[in-house]
Amino acid sequence: MGVMRDGTWHAVEPPSTGGAFERPETRFREVIAPGGRFPPEAGRYHLYVSLACPWAHRTLIFRVLKRLQGMIGVSVTHWLMADAGWNFAPGEGVVPDTVNGVQAMHELYRLADPRYSGRVTVPVLWDRVRRTIVNNESAEIIRILNSGFDGIGAAPGDWYPAALRPEIEAVNARVYATLNNGVYRAGFARSQAAYDAAVQPLFETLDWLEARLQTQPYLCGTRCTEADWRLFTTLIRFDSVYHTHFKCNRRRVVDYPALWDHTRSLYQVPGVAETVDLGHITRHYYGSHRQLNPFGILPIGPVLDLDRPGGRVPSLPPG
Ligand SMILES: N[C@@H](CCC(=O)N[C@@H](CS)C(=O)NCC(=O)O)C(=O)O
C-alpha cells in the first residue's frame, strides 16, 4: 500500500502505531446539490471503483438501486493493488478510465490536487466539468446517490428516510467500528492484543445483528435502509475472505441463519448480483496482501449458494 506526499506517489508501507490498524479520514467531502459547485447533471459525474473493495461496492449498489447507470459512468480498477496502488492494467472485468485516461488512481488524485498528500483510495466520485474529485468517502457518496439526482430522473426510493435516521446512524456506528472496519483491524493487526481487541467485538456484533434479524426483516425494522447495504458489502465478503484471510474464524456467515438469509435476500435484489464479483474480491485480498499471504495462494472455497432464495422480500422502492 503506497501513499502520496505532496503530489508524488510513494509505493511504501505507512508506519503503524502500537500494532493497531488505523483508517485515516478521507479528504474530498463535497456534495451534489442544485445551485452549488456541483449541481446534479446527467453524464457529468463518474465513479472510480474496485469491485474488490467493500466501500466502493456500496456506491455501485446505490447506483443500481437508484437506476443511475445511464447518468453516472464507472471505471473499474484491476483487482491487484501492488506497487502502483489501484490501477487499470488490463484484466478480466477491468474497465479503463475513458474520462481522464489515467493508468493508476494516484494520477487521478494528482489531477484533482497537484500537491495532494494522503492515501489513494477508492471509491472516487469525479466531476468531468470541474475536473476534480467531488467526494471520496463512500458513506457520503451513497447519500449523494440516494437523493442528489432525484430531481433529474433517478428512480424513486429513499434508503436514508428522515424518520429512521437516528436508528440508522446508531446501527451504522456499531457496524462500521466493529465489522466493516473491524475485519481490517483483525486482519491487519500486528500484535495478539490488537487482534483480540478487534475480533472479540466483531463476533459480539454478529451475534447482536443475528438476534435483530431474527425478529425483523431489516436492521432498522420493516424497511430496507442504507444500514442494510453497508452491512451487506462486508457479509458478502466474509466467508470467502475475512473468515480465512483476516482470521475472523469463530463462525461463518452461513452459520447465522438470519444473517445468511439477509445476505441472500439483498444479493437477490434486481441488479445487485451484478455488482458482486467474487473473482475480483478473492484475487484482490489473497493476492495484494503479501504480508498476510506471502505466496498469493488462492484458496479453493467456499462454495456459496447465493441463489438459494432469501426469505426477506425486498421492497423496491422501500417504504
Ligand atoms: N473511508 C473510505 C475508505 C476507502 C478505502 O479505504 N478503500 C480502500 C480499498 S478497500 C483503499 O482504497 N485502500 C487503499 C489505501 O488505503 O492505500 C471510504 O469509505 O470511502
Automatic annotation (TrEMBL):
Residues the record lists as binding glutathione: 86, 119-122, 137-138
GO molecular function: glutathione transferase activity
Residue ranges, annotated region (Disordered): 1-23
Organism of origin: Siccirubricoccus deserti
Gene3D superfamilies in UniProt: 1.20.1050.10, Glutaredoxin
Site (described: Lowers pKa of active site Cys): 242, 285
Protein name (Swiss-Prot/TrEMBL): Glutathione S-transferase family protein
GST N-terminal domain mapped to chain residues: 52-146
UniProt superkingdom: Bacteria
Gene Ontology CC annotation, any one: cytoplasm
InterPro entries per UniProt: Glutathione-S-Trfase_C_sf, Glutathione_S-Trfase, Glutathione_S-Trfase_N, GST_Omega-like_C, GST_Omega/GSH, Thioredoxin-like_sf
UniProt-annotated catalytic positions: 53, 184
